[in-house]
């Protein structure tokens, strides 16, 4: 019992040492300059619809489901397949830029201005019996 207690105390001491702040080597105060925070969000966009990000600065429109060769949910496949969507992006009301996004092959992400957009999913998933539903593109957007 004493041995377990000793090991526990030693582990706690090591953890406390590793989390301590490193001493400063100079007498200067830390810089007050701010670096912009990275913002990440997930958006669901219906076919023919748009969604905005960064207080409306970036607009993403799900223009088309170009193809969907993903393995149906009710089948066993040797390859997972790929979902392919076409999007139109617009930054700060500027001209629209058309891009392709894929789920498993390139391009899996696109960069527009300071934003990176990647496909998370496309619903409905094949083989779920929901083929008549309006497609929804799910994207992850990050600002740099």
Radius of gyration, in angstroms, nearest whole number: 24 Å
Helix proportion range: 10-25%
Structural class per helix/strand content? Answer: mainly beta
Mean pLDDT: 81
Taken from the alpha-carbon principal axes, the silhouette is elongated
Number of strands: 8
- Range of strand content: 35-45%
- Work out the helix count: 1
- Poorly predicted runs are 4-26
Give the biggest beta sheet: 4 strands, antiparallel
Written account of the structure:
The structure is a single chain. The chain has 144 residues and is mainly beta. 12% of the residues lie in helices and 41% in strands. It contains one helix and eight strands, in the order αββββββββ. The longest helix is centred in the first third of the chain and has 17 residues, at 2-18. The relative contact order is 0.19.
Structure summary:
This protein has one helix at residues 2-18; strands at 39-46, 50-53, 58-68, 83-91, 97-102, 109-112, 115-123, 136-143.
Write the layout of secondary structure elements.
Elements: H1 2-18, E1 39-46, E2 50-53, E3 58-68, E4 83-91, E5 97-102, E6 109-112, E7 115-123, E8 136-143
Antiparallel strand pairs: 1-8, 2-3, 3-4, 4-5, 6-7, 7-8
Key attributes of the depicted protein:
12% helix; four-stranded antiparallel beta sheet; mainly beta
């Amino acid at each position: 019992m004493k041995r377990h207690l000793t090991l526990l105390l030693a582990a706690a001491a090591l953890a406390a040492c590793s989390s301590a702040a490193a001493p400063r080597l100079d007498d200067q105060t830390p810089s007050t300059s701010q670096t912009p925070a990275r913002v990440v969000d997930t958006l669901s966009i219906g076919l023919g619809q748009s969604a905005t990000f960064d207080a409306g600065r970036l607009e993403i429109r799900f223009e088309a489901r170009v193809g969907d060769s993903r393995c149906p949910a009710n089948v066993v496949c040797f390859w997972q397949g790929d979902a392919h969507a076409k999007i139109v992006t617009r930054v700060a009301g500027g001209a629209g830029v058309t891009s392709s996004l894929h789920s498993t092959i390139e391009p899996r992400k696109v960069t527009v201005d300071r934003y990176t957009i990647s496909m998370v999913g496309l619903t409905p998933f094949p083989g779920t019996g929901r083929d008549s539903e309006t497609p929804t593109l799910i994207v992850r957007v990050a600002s740099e």
